Amino acid sequence: MARSIMSMEDGLHAERLTRPGNMSPGIGIVHLGLGAFFRAHGAPWIAEAARAGGGAWDILGVSLRSPSVRNALKPQDYAYTAVELAPEGERFEIIENVRDMLVAPEDPEALLSAMSDPAVHIVSLTVTEKGYCHNPATGELDPNHPDIVYDLAGELPKSAPGYIVRALQLRRNAGRAPFTVLSCDNLPNNGKVVRGVVLELARLIDPELADWIAAEGRFPSTMVDRIVPATKPEDVEQLEKAAGYYDAAPVMHEPFQQWVIEDDFVGGERPDFGAVGVQLVDDVTPYEHMKLRMLNGAHSSLAYLGYLAGHETIADTTGDTVFAAFAARLWQREIIPALAPPAGVDLNAYADQLLERFRNPAIRHLTWQIAMDGSQKLPQRILGTLRENLDAGRESPGLLLALAAWMRYVGGTDENGDPIDVQDPLADRLRKLSDDVRGADKVSRLLSVREVFPADLAKRIEPLLRPVFTGLIEKGARASVSEL
Ligand code: CS2
Q1: CATH of domain 2-282
Q2: CA dihedral sign, ordered 237, 240, 246, 249
Q3: 473 phi and psi, to 5 degrees?
Q4: How far, in Å, from the CA of 212 to the mean position of ligand 1?
Q5: What single-letter DSSP state applies at residue 246?
Q6: Three-state secondary-structure class, residue 415
Q7: Which residues contact 166 (CB under 8 A, 6 or more apart)?
Q8: Quick one: pLDDT band at residue 5, thresholds 50, 70, 90?
Q9: What integer pLDDT is reported at residue 12 of this predicted model?
């Protein structure tokens, strides 16, 4: 590995990680939203697939907003360390297949030109739920979203759907095939969602372009899974001590990983995923439901209730026996009964494995981090199960308590009366709705947010949720959980 000497602020000298300088075949993938998750999951897996099956599958990373990841990675030629955190110890691997990075607002034309390059066959995305500019309750494009309004006003876009549409337009004009759009976000039917928003936006720009994308484009849905807590300054320091070099932007992840992809790529052009354990399937839906409802549904439930109970991480929360029993109960009595398992999968064993993953003491995954963007997450993580349980006449006391905890959380004050830093695109509105009224009326107010709660569902859960919320306020999160 090539390294250069850099000075540390504290006067120590550490060698900075840089790329070894080997040449590889070239960029075939543009990834929008190059954050920690993709750097710890998709990128290493694509590198492995390219090693196994060949092909030019290096990655051009894109940040749609902030330059911080590019600024950290550029001096190390975009190489970085992926640190695997197992209960028994750490392992690290240097990932080298991100060849370059663009920060979209600095040069939107450069990004569009990269995306329309004929060597690029895949545009993958991890832009988080809110990056799709859709209505989370319906999955449809929100034409009033400020970024979409901006994208419609000119030819240089701002949003992920905007870049995809404009780049596909350039490809069509140049007589090139489209790229495959590969969503790697935690949305149900993520391929269908991104296809839907791209087609709606394209139709507003040029209906013929929309027809071409509908006929020629491919948008396979995927299920992605690996727990990747945000990298903390102490992680950087620890890696430096353990590895002997300085990496400004390592990523931390658990040993587990899963990737299930619908095998539907333009011209069949993709890395050899099948050779390296990525599951290629015809329909990802049963995997997505399992993962979003069991892993992410429990994650969000534990995050709101755990945060209110004063737990800093998911490992701390599930290390508290009351919460471990709560998670098991959620899976056994409320979530699994509403699921159709993927072929050959034992959901009880999956639940046991999840609890073990959540309890991994080496992973410091903040409840506050998972609590972010709840308005975008609740529909697919909790409300789908809740609706199906209502239809089947099954009770959902745990999911209702989790929903009540979200309502308490977005009110902005914890159980000690201290302020909560609520991160959510709807944070201000949620706070105002909650502040306007007292007690269980907060429930009725928050249920009026149609982007999250469709009217019929709100009506059905309101009488059930009001007393749960009141109980949560009176008793606190931990006691409410223990009484279930
Ligand atoms: C988490 C996910 O932050 C969150 O909302 O629930 O990032 C979760 O860790 C991943 O989906 C695991 O695959």
Answers
A1: 3.40.50.720
A2: negative
A3: -65, -40
A4: 34
A5: E
A6: coil
A7: 112, 151, 155, 156, 157
A8: very low
A9: 53
Domain ranges of the chain: 2-282, 286-482
Q: What percent of the chain is modeled with pLDDT above 70?
A: 96
- What topology does CATH give the domain 286-482? N-(1-d-carboxylethyl)-l-norvaline Dehydrogenase; domain 2 (1.10.1040)
To test the pocket of ligand 1, the residue of 130, 184, 186, 373 to mutate (highest count of ligand atoms within 8 Å of its CB) is 186
Tokens 């099956």 appear where? 53
Report the nearest atom of ligand 1 relative to the CA of 226.
13
How far does residue 227's CA lie from ligand 1's centre (Å)?
Answer: 6
Distance, CA of 14 to CA of 3 (rounded, Å): 9
> Global pTM?
0.94
Alpha-carbon dihedral sign for residues 27, 30, 35, 37: negative
Give backbone dihedrals phi and psi of 260, rounded to 5 degrees, phi first: -120, 125
**Ligand 1 pocket, Cβ-based, cut-off 6 angstroms:** 186, 225-227, 295-296, 299, 369-370
411 alpha carbon to ligand 1 midpoint, in Å? Answer: 23
**Does residue 237 have a pLDDT over 90?**
yes
**Nearest 5°: CA angle at 427, between 163 and 444?**
120
* CA–CA distances in Å: residue 417 to residues 405, 411, 413, 442: 15, 11, 5, 17
Q: For a ligand 1 pocket test, name from 370, 373, 375, 381 the mutation site with the most ligand atoms within 8 angstroms of its C-beta.
A: 370
313 CA to centre of ligand 1 in angstroms? 13
Compute CA 37 distance to the chain's CA centroid, rounded to the nearest angstrom.
7
Q: Specify whether the CB–CB gap between 248 and 75 falls below 8 A.
A: yes
Q: Give the residue-averaged pLDDT of 185-200.
A: 96
Cα 460–Cα 403–Cα 305 angle in degrees, nearest 5: 155
User: Which of helix, strand or coil describes residue 137?
Assistant: coil
- Ligand 1 centroid – CA 200 distance (Å): 28
